[in-house]
UniProtKB/TrEMBL annotation, chain A:
Record-linked Gene3D superfamilies: P-loop containing nucleotide triphosphate hydrolases
Location within or outside the cell: Cell inner membrane
Keyword ATP-binding: yes
Organism of provenance: Prosthecodimorpha hirschii
Topology of the protein relative to the lipid bilayer: Peripheral membrane protein
Location (main, coarse): membrane
Name of the protein described by the UniProt record: ABC transporter domain-containing protein
From TrEMBL, chain B:
This protein's name: ABC transporter domain-containing protein
Family, as annotated: Belongs to the ABC transporter superfamily.
Record keywords, A-Z: ATP-binding, Nucleotide-binding, Transport
Pfam families the record matches: ABC_tran, oligo_HPY
NCBIfam families the UniProt entry points to: oligo_HPY
Domain ABC transporter span(s) in chain numbering: 7-257
Record-level Gene Ontology MF annotations: ATP binding; ATP hydrolysis activity
Highest rank taxon of the organism: Bacteria
Subcellular compartments: Cell inner membrane
Chain coiled-coil ranges: none
Amino acid sequence: MTAALRDDFIPDAEPPALVVDELTTQIRVGRTWYDAVRGISFAVRPRETLALVGESGCGKSLTALSVMGLLPAGVGRVSGGRIVVDGVDMTAADEPTRESMRGDRIGMIFQEPMTSLNPVLPIGFQVAESLIQHRGLSKKAALNRARELLELVRVPAAASRLDAYPHQFSGGMRQRVMIALALACDPKVLIADEPTTALDVTIQAQVLALMADVQKREGLALLLITHNLGVVASVADRVMVMYGGDVVESGPVRAFFARPSHPYSEALLAAMPRIDGDTPLQPIAGQVPTLTQMPTGCRFATRCALRHDRCAELPPLTPVGDDPNHLVRCWARMSP
Amino acid sequence: MTATPLLDIRDLRKIYKTRRGWPIPKTALVRALDGVSFTVGRGEALGVVGESGCGKSTVARVALRLQEADGGAVQFDGTDVLAAGKTDLRTLRRRMQMVFQDPASSLDGRQRIIDALGEPLRVHGIASGAAVKPAVVRLLDEVGLPPSAVDRYPHEFSGGQRQRIGIARALALGPDLIFADEPVSALDVSVQAQILKLLETLRRERNLAFVFISHDLGVVRYFCQRVVVMYLGRVVETGPVPEIFVDPLHPYTRLLKLSSPEPDPARAVAMAFQEGEPPSPVDPPSGCHFHPRCPIAVDRCRTEAPALRELRTGRHAACHLAT
């Protein structure tokens, strides 16, 4: 637990709703299992938003799937560490227990709502279903609650749209329905995996505002997975940057953007074209190595300008300057 | 912009018919392009921005004659594109090419790269026989791929590399203008930056013009010299970069800018700026299409569609209230 506790900077009496401690997730390629997430630790408190950022293959979605217990059987497995949701150790629990946690204590929102919504069932029923399943409500009571939830996520004329089907909604409205669905059983933890990536920017702004509002009102711990550092700056309290399955930097959002310290974090920011200034664009040379070709030690070393001999050994997470909450995993950026 | 533009689009119209409703379907008209005009100069990158359904992809398809227009005019280097016959169209297609968002779906999975890139060279008589391979290798080199790529299949490449192949294919016939439809939207940031740099180099070295369709204002600001902002089939603002983003004249351009997240916690997106959905193009609002979402709309906006007016030198906006 020590590693997880080190992240906790908020002087808050409330215990974290989600604790991930030294989680290692493996993926099978051929007959060999490779570490795709390597010993990551974090905790998210009620009302707090932790953003997990990185590019394709960095392990951010695998982390979410591990927490949900939704890794594809035979291909992915949690090989080490603990995941504690609302006091329940998910890693030690049996499948029925995990099943009862999903959709009840943990809600999840995916990028493409159409793949999670059933096209042949009315949306009112889909929202009500988990209440019937997890809470044992009658159909009538569940539909009533579904209407309240759709009103909470500001679906216009919610009562008359309980009978509507997913295809009758726009992308933004579908994502609102997904949020209502995720919130149905008052979860403690909400995991949102690229929830606004498929949406237009103005709709993205609305959905982010809605999520933030609902989160604060319902006291949710939100784990937001995104590749968009602009979204992180707008809504997150803390950020963790991942590369090749490692956390390379983590810290409060303001401290991170004021002083991005890992060469990969800096490179990501420099590769982003800005609307508000003519910053020269700096691509990151090369590409993320595949799982089977990961370098030992620091996995960013093959693309890093600051690389030296010591990078063959994985650096620990150490504080940036004298900020104990802002951590970086880099030999070159370690405080002397 | 040069005196005579390379591409001149005037009052372009495209109407789709859709049948919806049950049990008795009704035919509805969707005005995907409702009088769109703009020009592109030689070697100029023009950004076309707007949200889903605003007609930005339709402009490219109609200008390339992949779909027929329902009105208006398209001139390419003095040739009337909409009236061109088969032979003229063939010549035009050599000079106007397209790059798509998802190169995986525009490349044949069973075709090796040498065949994918060699085919247009052979068909248009640019290279044949033993000359094809060196020509393909040169194209690959120009987009930063090794000669060994020729014998490989599309699935062996990463997303960024596949987009490079898509670009090489567009370059094969030596075009003057490329329509690029969200060419970097599906890529990770670091790869996106590589592709943008490549396109920028090609634009300068080949004096290539681009119609660059994107929803990402940051990308457009980096790559383009001028911008056209579209909303529900109409142009609402045009102007040069960076002025159009520094000081947007149309309330919709302002909304786009405010909604675009920047990596700066001091500049969080104005998230609750407007409730309300973009209206459906099937049934657009009366008057100015944007009025239901506009924070400054007045009665006139509900009845009378504003025309594009020049408000500053080279800057036009279609808003009754913009000054």
